[in-house]
Amino acid sequence: MNILDKIVVDKRKEVDLRKSLIPISQLEQSVLFERKSPSLAKALRESTSGIIAEHKRRSPSKSVINQSLNVQDVAKGYEAAGVCGMSVLTDSKYFGGSLDDLLLARAVTSIPLLRKEFIIDEYQILEAKAHGADVVLLIAAILTRDEIKTLSETAKGLGLDILLEVHNEEELHKSIMPSLDMLGVNNRNLKTFEVSLETSKSLSTQIPGDFVKVSESGISSVEAIKELTLYGYEGFLIGENFMKTDNPGEHATAFIKKLES
Ligand SMILES: O=C(O)c1ccccc1NCC(=O)[C@H](O)[C@H](O)COP(=O)(O)O
Fold it and tell me: What is the Cα–Cα distance from 197 to 215, expressed in whole angstroms?
């Protein structure tokens, strides 16, 4: 069993429990349910940097990254840096995150927020909306084409953007459909945890031009972004490189300044 399989086994149990504790009718009563979500895809298309900065305390590949920061300080720092959006990991067991992190970030920022989660059930999309997300991640490796269609149409119906993540050609070809906004290529091999930007480069020509292309994981330099831009990427998801520092917002500011200079 690879790490993604393990996460999904745990996630099914977690979602069943959450559903039994909080009914959908309660999620729909959240004031955030009525909020109009800004589009991350649009922000990326209009941006000169394309940075999506992540809040990530720990991960299966790196163990602890940073447990001492306040999510609201991180969110304010990222917004001040001029990022296009913020990714908030909400998985608790493997990443140390929570839906409260999303809610807290929402309370202090107006930039698009991505719920970074292992979504396998429509219920998690309703949770995302109720906690202030503007974008949801769907991971092709853990979903069938029919599931991607149903989940993305549910998200669209709630006014959310969809970032569909792939790791290889097979996942990409099975997933392409009009209800997606952004196609993300994850540079991390989830079997070996090895990171290679070659994954983004090699898949780039196969992503149809109407989707915003996002490169995810293992990005730590401005030079890498400049190179990925030549392959048509408009979005760059960065977690560890910012989160391993004492002040992720300050580092994002310096990074974006260098990128735009
Ligand atoms: O980061 C991991 O170890 C990981 C393991 C298993 C599933 C997902 C994982 N990461 C989620 C992500 O997609 C990254 O947090 C995101 O792309 C940022 O990556 P990085 O800049 O390398 O922190």
Answer: 8
Question: From start to end of the chain, where are the E strands?
Answer: 51-55, 58-59, 63-64, 85-89, 113-116, 135-139, 161-166, 182-186, 212-216, 235-238
Reported pTM: 0.97
**What is the Cα 59 distance to its own chain's centre?**
14
From ligand 1's centre to the CA of 49, what distance in Å? Answer: 20
> What is the spatial distance between Cα 140 and Cα 168, in angstroms, rounded to a whole number?
10
Q: Catalytic one among 79, 117, 171, 216?
A: 216
Length of the chain: 261
Q: How many domains does the chain have?
A: 1
- Residues sharing a CB contact under 8 Å with residue 27, sequence separation 6 or more, in sequence order: 33, 126, 127, 129, 130
Task: Tell me which residue of 243, 40, 41, 26 sits closest to 131, measured CA to CA.
Answer: 26
Q: What is the CATH number of the domain that holds 243?
A: 3.20.20.70
The label of the residue with tokens 């569909």 reads 164
ipTM of the complex: 0.98
Residue nearest to atom 10 of ligand 1 (CA): 59
Structural domain harbouring 12: 3-260
**What residues contact 243, with CB distance under 8 A and at least 6 apart?**
54, 55, 56, 57, 65, 66, 69, 74
Active site residue 46: no
Instruction: Please report where in the chains the tokens 């070996």 appear, as a residue.
Output: 192
CA angle at residue 86 from 83 to 87, to 5 degrees? 145
Q: What is the pLDDT of residues 178-230, one digit of tens each?
A: 999 999 999 999 878 999 999 999 999 999 999 999 999 999 999 999 999 99
Query: CB within 8 A of 226, min separation 6: which ones?
Result: 259
